[in-house]
Design a protein that fits this description.
With 154 residues, the protein is α+β, with helices and mostly antiparallel strands. It has one domain. Helix content is 42%, strand content 17%. A hairpin with a 3-residue loop joins strand 1 and strand 2. Bound molecules: zinc ion. The site of zinc ion has 5 residues, from helix 3.
């Protein structure tokens, strides 16, 4: 999974994400991924998710699009960094328009710096889950993001 572009809009941040190969598009294609993401971010299990099947995210997690998981990881990191849990995210795709494996993830934000930092950290978490990088130190990094918010507010 690769982040191609990040655009800050007044009400949300848009992230264009690319996934290589049909077999890499779903969480179910990566053995153990659902369990490993919950070890890093246990509170993901409680996420609400507006998916067509109406499934809770804890179930959805086992078999969904990799960029949809990325969206939830971004929202969770933002929440851990102090953003309200009422903020929403969305993952859409139109392969005919954008090309195969290209997804558009949109996340609402309260603090743009915290949002951009959360996207970067979520990307590191995904790279780790997909076997391409060491695990980031989520606790330390979210604490750093939280302190960014305090600085901006003072
Ligand atoms: Zn969702």
């Amino acid at each position: 999974m690769k982040v191609h572009a990040v655009t800050v809009c007044p009400d949300r941040v848009d992230v264009v994400v690319g996934v290589d190969g049909a077999q890499m598009m779903r969480t179910s294609s990566v053995p153990g991924l659902a369990e490993r993401v919950l070890e890093i971010l246990p509170t993901l299990e409680k996420h609400l998710c507006d998916n067509p099947a109406g499934r809770p995210f804890a179930e959805e997690l086992a078999d969904t699009e990799i960029p949809h998981l990325f969206e939830h990881v971004v929202m969770e990191i933002m929440a851990l960094a102090g953003s309200p849990r009422t903020l929403r995210g969305q993952t859409r795709w139109d392969f005919r328009r954008d090309g195969r494996g290209v997804f558009r993830v949109s996340v609402e934000y309260d603090d743009d710096l915290v949002c951009l930092g959360s996207i970067k950290l979520a990307d590191q978490v995904m790279q780790h889950l997909l076997g391409a990088a060491e695990a980031p130190d989520v606790a330390t990094e979210t604490a750093r993001l939280r302190s960014l918010r305090k600085l901006a507010a003072s």
